[in-house]
Amino acid sequence: MNHKKGMMKGEMMQQKMGETQFNDANLNKAYMHYIMINKALVKSQPKKAQMMSKMLVDILNNYGKASESLVAANKLAESDNLENQRKIFAELTISMEPLFKDNITKGKVYKNF
Q1: What is the DSSP letter of 43?
Q2: 81-93 tens-digit pLDDT
């Protein structure tokens, strides 16, 4: 995982959607939803972030190897407060970083600080 200084603390981004792939289809979906949650939070769209978080919960349940991420995603799905969601997103990022880092097969994930 490449580290890059810049934007929101704990935010992981890719340059173009689809360039990054993981060794599990559920992780590919989880990453896509993670990015959509991030974008919703940047655009101050708490309802969209909440909806994407609910979808992420389902994906992480199917993956079955992400208990810490599942807890954070559930908290995010239950909140409709933007500031609270942004704090929880930082927790989600911390818990998902090893999943993404250890299972990437193509592309790069950048972590912005």
Answers
A1: T
A2: 999 999 999 999 9
Count of CA atoms in the C-beta half-sphere (13 A) of 17: 9
Half-sphere exposure of 63 (CA within 13 A, CB side): 26
Q: Is the dihedral of CA 17, 20, 23, 27 positive or negative?
A: negative
First vs last C-alpha separation in the chain? 13
Q: Are strands 110-112 and 11-13 parallel, antiparallel or unpaired?
A: antiparallel
Q: What is the value of pTM for the model shown? A: 0.81
Report the 3 state secondary structure along 64-108. CCCHHHHHHHHHHHHCCCHHHHHHHHHHHHHHHHHHHHHHEEECC
CB atoms within 10 A of CB 86: 21
For residue 49, give the 3-state DSSP assignment.
helix
